[in-house]
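task queued by scheduler; priority normal; single chain, no ligands, no partner chains; default sampling; output format set to structure tokens
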Amino acid sequence: MGLLRDFIKKITHPFLRKGAEFYYRKPRSYSYNGITTIVHPDVFPPHLTLSTKILLDFMSDIDLTQKTFLELGCGSGIISLYASQKRATVTASDINKTALAYLQKASTENKLPVTCVYSNLFEALQEKHFDYIFINPPYYPKAPESTKQHAWFCGEEFEYFEALFKQLPIYLSEENTTYMILSEDCELEKIESIASKNDIVMKTIFTTKKVGEKNYIFAISQK
């Protein structure tokens, strides 16, 4: 299955957790398409996971010129920076203040404007319109014990998705395009059932298999 997938799938395993902590004991750079950002140890790491790179490659064919763009839960913010490079008007939100501070610095250093907003999901983004929303959510069913763990764990009862799909309909329209990436390792049926009860449709539009793991990008819309 490979160490990479084991790392993602069994992040709570003591050996793998210690390995990850060792690797991320100091800030590390991450680059894409000439953009470089520094990822703090307390921020979701795009280096050893698949989803960020998959979303970045997926974005490459999308014309974002003069579009309003939201990365909900931005982490390292490389997706937001790339959207800015593609001439979108970009907002990046997160509950991790360290992530936002490092992204703001990367925005300045790369000369790519990004508006950073401290927000739990859409709480600080009310009454805003976005042409595009990109979501790389936490999906392991465990209660997060720290701000950092909110990037991995969605709560024992999938509280993250309960809140997300309750708030999201306000932002969905014929003019909006929302994408979310999920792995086959998550409980897809459970997540889809939460979406359905909130009158939200998750349509698979892209599937890829890397390192023995399938990842899916969903287009999110209202019924």
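post-processing summary
- The longest strand covers residues 200-210.
- The CA atoms of residues 37 and 105 lie 8 Å apart.
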